[in-house]
């Protein structure tokens, strides 16, 4: 394992994971990685049709992501990843030397608005219902995952995330100045 740390930025589709993860990667001089890039073409087609991927497709996707984190990632990796299933969140948190999570949650109506407004993305807005149904709430042992509000501006989410990372010893004060 060559990576110092992975920051998993999680939440159902259109909660703002990619937006926050890109901003955070820039702020901490890390690498932004989008879990969307690890989907098969067949999985993308399913999501384009407005469905969430099935368990088998999700398991293959998680294996590819886990392999990447274990063997290819280096430095600080900021991964935008849905994290719907608790056991899989734990698997990816365990795939790095060090990992923390940020979870974007909020009102379904706000998320629906963002999904509908988003044009250039393979996931169809019809996915919202299945994403909400599939999402498994955090379990008590998932204590390195910090929840952020989708309703907050990205800058505010970023400030809270940086503060959390400092309290967890992931960042020094100097690293983000
Ligand atoms: N904090 C925010 N406030 C308002 N709009 C946001 C915020 N974060 C993201 N968005 C917008 O919401 C949409 C979905 O964001 P995106 O980052 O693509 O979500 P995800 O990666 O979770 O699917 C995009 O159009 C994005 O510009
Ligand atoms: O079932 C899942 O685990 C999710 O649907 C996952 O596949 C992801 O959320 C998609 O990649 C959609 O992309 P965005 O989350 O970037 O909208």
TrEMBL record:
Pfam families: AAA_18 (PF13238)
Keywords, sorted A to Z: ATP-binding, Kinase, Nucleotide-binding, Transferase
Protein family membership: Belongs to the gluconokinase GntK/GntV family.
Catalytic activity: D-gluconate + ATP = 6-phospho-D-gluconate + ADP + H(+)
Protein name (Swiss-Prot/TrEMBL): gluconokinase
InterPro entries registered for this protein in UniProt: P-loop_NTPase (IPR027417), Therm_gnt_kin (IPR006001)
SUPFAM superfamilies in alphabetical order: P-loop containing nucleoside triphosphate hydrolases
Origin superkingdom: Bacteria
Enzyme Commission designation: 2.7.1.12
Associated pathway: Carbohydrate acid metabolism
